[in-house]
Amino acid sequence: xxxxxxxxxxxxxxxxxxxxxxxxxxxxxGKNEDTAPVIGPDPITSDTMFNRxxxxxxxxxxxxxxxxxxxxxxxxxxxxxxxxxVKPDYQRTTRWDISFSDIYRSxxxxxxxxxxxxxxxxxxxxxxxxxxxxxxxxxxxxxxxFRRGERAYGTDDSGAFGEGLGWYLYDFGGTLKGxxxxxxxxxxxxxxxxxxxxxxxxxxxxxxxxLSIYKDKLDPNTWVRSDPQPxxxxxxxxxxxxxxxxxxxx
Length: 250
Prior knowledge:
InterPro entries: HmuY
Distance between the termini: 92 Å
Protein name: HmuY family protein
Pfam families: HmuY
Strand order of the largest sheet: 1-11-10-9-6
């Protein structure tokens, strides 16, 4: 049998080929590390978050330049248990509890594994809207009444573009709540006797009162279409899983 030995030129080619493969692997790993966030364990919810009235001021961000009121917007996410915004990188985790999306980012949904933005994640959240004032909502409802991400709550039938029971009245023409002027058109008015109930991604419960989507403004009489929006100011009470009442404790 004849044995063929590699020539010095072939040896050099083999070494160069191996070097290129190694550099490619290193480059590939580097790219993956840059684009894929490292997701550690979820933060622990402090006991101080439960059974107290919590207020959030001006949560949100300005819409893209050139946006019109009917444009659908990308979602933003909020953790009720941590009282903070959550990056979209953590969409399929239990780090967020409610999302704001669609027109004005005014459609609010929960984080559940079966549908919505939490689809295929570990979330066990839910959302349910009741025709009661925030202060009058005392009892935690049974789990089977909560939506599980399949549909968000947004515009109410009492205003324009209503989609059933919603948390706000949309005054498209400015004549339902305003004086019909241009600045009073396209205003979103939270409905006082409609309260959002949320089961968080981890299974705790909250009741939520939306106060305004206009930055630094709480008085509906002062809202105009040129105000910075949507910047949510809202209040909520968080109670632990297994609770039957939304109690505020000293």
